[in-house]
From TrEMBL:
Protein encoded by which gene: LOC107427177
Family, similarity comment: Belongs to the EXORDIUM family.
Cellular-component GO terms for this entry: apoplast
UniProt keyword Secreted, yes or no: yes
Location(s), subcellular: Secreted, Extracellular space, Apoplast
Top-level taxon of origin: Eukaryota
Leader sequence segment: 1-22
Organism: Ziziphus jujuba
Name of the protein in its database record: Protein EXORDIUM-like 5
Main location: secreted
Entries under Pfam families matching the protein: Phi_1
Keywords: Apoplast, Secreted, Signal
Length: 355
């Protein structure tokens, strides 16, 4: 995942001045949302300070935020996309269920199960991306298998290479098949695990495994739980930098009351969108260097609704308990996920757009 820089906000203002809207149907009226109470959520557009980073390299790649092009590589068009989940470290069952409900909400198209604006409608923007045959990114995603690496097989500090070795361990010990055509491998590290560049430059990343390490080329993503390490960076806007204490707006209330995991979900959404549209880093990205691409999530980093930019995250919703969200999921879940660049609108888009 690419972390935002101040340059981003200038471009967001340009994007929005050209009329950002959803890639799916949207309305300016308050949507029907499954809640424990009958009052509809309220829209608001909070202005918050930007995240702080100790590194000046805010993006993992180019700062070219406009020239998104197709480079002839594959997208994840298989139906369904099989997600192989690796829970690295200690995870509570409610945390696992929350993340899996988000993943399964991508395919929950029944409005009775997940009312608009929904996670499935958010994923529609991702599904607009195609390969050279015209095949779209699949709208169907399943959690194919799970593996719990509770004994920290590669220790409590991982590098980008040992992340791949964790995948190799899962494949070689046979809980996971080799699914290079239909599968993606998602490694989630618990809050006591440190990872190379985590909090300093990235909150997550995606790439593909090296045959020399894993034996196969497999698309994968890693995302870490920042709850105890750097929530003000990777669980933003549910935590704010320390210098804001006692002044200015407060942090937003997470929709599921777990700052670390709620923050992870937006990062997971970001990485899955980019993994689906650029799995082998030779499909959809901006810039000329595939080792440093700017992708469809990077272009809309920090934007969650209409009117975002200049420090504003955009129009989002707040329920009666004060919890902030912009999409609905299965089982009455609510999530706050960033918008994605639409190849049709040539702008950031999300299902909660108000114009």
């Amino acid at each position: 995942m690419s972390l935002p820089n101040f340059f981003f906000f200038f471009f967001v203002s340009i994007f929005l001045s050209h009329g950002v809207s959803s890639s799916s149907s949207s309305s300016s009226s308050v949507p029907s949302v499954q809640t424990l109470n009958t009052q509809p959520p309220k829209f608001f557009n909070p202005k918050l300070p930007p995240r702080t980073l100790s590194s000046s390299k805010k993006f993992e790649g180019s700062s070219d935020l406009v020239n998104l092009r197709y480079h002839m590589g594959p997208v994840l068009s298989s139906k369904p996309i099989n997600v192989y989940l690796i829970w690295y470290g200690k995870w509570a069952q409610p945390q696992k269920l929350l993340i899996k409900d988000f993943l399964l909400s991508i395919s929950t198209t029944d409005l009775r199960a997940a009312p608009s604006p929904s996670v499935a409608e958010w994923w529609r923007t991702v599904s607009l991306y195609t390969d050279q045959t015209g095949a779209n990114v699949s709208r169907s995603l399943v959690v194919a298998r799970e593996f719990a690496d509770q004994k920290y097989s590669h220790g409590t500090h991982l590098t980008r290479l040992t992340v791949q070795q964790v995948i190799a361990n899962a494949v070689r010990s046979a809980p996971f098949p080799v699914d290079h055509k239909h599968g993606i491998y998602l490694i989630l590290t618990s809050q006591d695990v440190t990872v190379q560049d985590f909090c300093r430059a990235v909150c997550g990343f995606h790439y593909f495994t090296f045959p020399s390490l894993v034996g196969y080329t497999l698309p994968y993503a890693w995302v870490g739980n920042s709850g105890k390490q750097c929530p003000e960076v990777c669980a933003y806007p549910f935590a704010l930098p320390g210098y804001m204490a006692g002044g200015g707006p407060g942090a937003l209330s997470p929709p599921n009351k777990d700052v670390g995991v709620d923050g992870m979900i937006s990062v997971i959404a970001h990485e899955l969108a980019e993994l689906a549209s650029n799995p082998l880093v030779n499909a959809w990205y901006a810039g000329e260097d595939p080792t440093a691409p700017t992708e469809i999530g990077d272009l809309c980093e920090g934007l969650y609704g209409t009117g975002g930019g200049g420090g504003y995250i955009g129009q989002v919703m707040r329920d009666r308990e004060g919890r902030t969200f912009n999409v609905n999921g299965r089982k009455g879940r609510k999530f706050l996920v960033q918008w994605i660049w639409s190849p049709v609108l040539k702008a950031c888009a999300g299902p909660n757009a108000m114009n």
